[in-house]
Amino acid sequence: MSREDIDMEEVEAKIQNRLSLLANIEQPRFIHKCICFAITRKCPFECRRCFFCGSKDGESVSVADAKEIIANLPDDLEEIVLTGGEPFVNMRLLYDVLTEIKNRRFPELSRISILTTGFWATDREYVREIVRELADLGVRILLWEHLTNGIMRQD
Ligand code: SF4
Q1: What does the pLDDT read at residue 152?
Q2: What is the pLDDT along the chain (155 residues), one digit of tens a residue?
Q3: Whose CA is nearest to atom 6 of ligand 1?
Q4: Quick check: 56 and 43 in contact, CB under 8 A?
Q5: H-helix segments, the chain
Q6: 117 lines ligand 1 (CB under 6 A)
Q7: Cα–Cα distance for residue pair 58/136, rounded to 1 Å
Q8: Chain-centre distance of CA 131, in angstroms?
Q9: Which pLDDT score is estimated for 21?
Q10: How far is it, in rounded angstroms, from Cα 101 to Cα 80?
């Protein structure tokens, strides 16, 4: 099809139609205030396609910096997702960050999640114990989504 074959009136009508549809879209009534906090780049899997360049030597946030970051988050935050890298490579740091979040007492915070490969979940009793400890620190959801990234690291 050459340029001359294009019916510009028809194109213009289609554009106007799309624009009027967009103009009539209802504005969102509600904004979910969520942050994703990557506490480390360290990850045993080193997937080639990792968006965060996870590596065995990846650096982690210091506890002091994490405290400062958490202290400066907005009061009306509703959700926090902790991620990496693999947040479970440094349990002490993970627990320190969770304790800091708990102590900050965000009044609107309804969910803390952790995105993990699950590499640490090798023993049923150990998993139960960790889940109990995490629940005490306010964690409600463990997201196992990038387990498949770990498995498919040679992609
Ligand atoms: S498992 Fe996830 S965090 Fe780790 S290297 Fe792969 S994509 Fe990155």
Answers
A1: 45
A2: 666 777 888 888 988 888 888 777 776 667 789 999 999 999 999 988 888 888 999 999 999 999 999 999 999 999 999 999 999 999 999 999 999 999 999 999 999 999 998 889 889 999 999 999 999 999 988 887 655 554 444 44
A3: 47
A4: yes
A5: 8-23, 63-71, 91-104, 124-136, 147-151
A6: yes
A7: 28
A8: 19
A9: 82
A10: 9
> How far is the centre of ligand 1, averaged over its atoms, from the C-alpha of 55 (Å)?
8
Closest of 51, 56, 108 to residue 79, by C-alpha: 108
CATH topology of domain 29-151: TIM Barrel (3.20.20)
Give the pLDDT score at 151.
47
Q: How is the chain split into domains, by residue range?
A: 29-151
Q: Residue 80's beta-bridge partner residues? A: 35, 112
Read off the amino acid at residue 55. S
Q: How far apart are CA 78 and CA 85, in angstroms?
A: 23
Instruction: Supply the pLDDT for residue 59.
Output: 95
Query: Is the distance from CB of 73 to CB of 103 less than 8 angstroms?
Result: no
Ligand 1 atom 3 nearest Cα:
85
Spatial neighbors of 93 by CB under 8 A, at least 6 apart, are 39, 40, 60, 61, 63, 66, 87
58 lines ligand 1 (CB under 6 A): no
